[in-house]
């Protein structure tokens, strides 16, 4: 909420002084017949009364409304109360200043204060005051929205930087993780079968090149990942021979989709790590596609004693997907099998734009709302500027034929429709209908 301080008061006082000086000099130069120091001082005094009363009257009204209702959180209430308060306060201020000017200072009769020339002057000055106040309200609204937009942009940048940093951290785990586990396999092979260890070393160099090439990418095609997984499976077969079997069944359409890089390698490694495999009880691993997901399934032959895991493999995939999309990674375990299914994404886009966050959606809606309100206020300010000018031209050129009513009423009707569309029934009705359609579509699923 808004808080008024001494700087704001001093700023309003400075504005009032400049307005007093400018308007006083203007009226003294063009509307005062006798040019004297006394009349100049009177002109400045009258201008000061109007400027200080109007500026501080509207200033304190705005401060009070801003302290109760936020332009951002209570936009509609703030605008409606602002319009009502502006009309009421400015009418009171105009009548007060005109009474001091015409009745107290100029010593005119109060009997004709609301009629004749004084009544006309009251009406003109009220319109001018409402115009100035509308501009001040529009300026205050725009400043609040700009502050909110800048804050939203900063928050979005912080979210993006945080997510990207987290994503990079997760990807950087892959390089040493793969190397560490591959060296463990190689170490075991050196003792078991030195010839296989040599072939394993040659294959590992090719695979490690792929790891280095792909680990910095956010997404790779399923086809690339499957080809790499097959090469990695051949490497595993080098060590386990007929103790492990692999079955690939991924349809052609799925090959064009995208997954996070090295996800299959991590999941295959997870199968080997947590299950025992022998010739009599081989480990069967299936990789297949179904309903937009890529499945990695194995028969459950869980090791009785497993060294405490570093938690990099499966958790790494889950976390990387959470930064890329709202689609979840699913894990299913029974007495007979262990299954992981990862979503296949249909569009290769960056981590920060794969799925819009609540913050980005709110920002887009706020930006759209600002455009709507800017359009309405531009229309309102134009109306307040043009109609009084047309009225002046009408009364000055042909006071007996009041033609200014036609543009005033026609434009006023259009302005009312614009106001209803921006703040009133039309907008609510449209949003309710959209929500009904969305609810109906969701209920069919």
TrEMBL record:
Domain annotation Signal transduction histidine kinase internal region: ranges: 165-243
Signal sequence interval, chain numbering: none
CC per GO annotation: membrane
Residue stretches making up the 2TM domain: 364-438
Residues spanning the membrane: 12-31, 37-59, 79-101, 121-141, 376-396, 402-420
Alphabetical UniProt keywords: Kinase, Membrane, Transferase, Transmembrane, Transmembrane helix
Gene Ontology MF terms: phosphorelay sensor kinase activity
Keyword Aminoacyl-tRNA synthetase assigned: no
Superkingdom of the source species: Bacteria
Pfam families the UniProt entry points to: 2TM, His_kinase
Keyword Cell inner membrane on entry: no
InterPro entries (UniProt xref): 2TM_dom, Bact_2-comp_sensor_kinase, Sig_transdc_His_kin_internal
Coiled-coil zones: none
Name recorded for this polypeptide: Histidine kinase
Originating organism: Kaistella jeonii
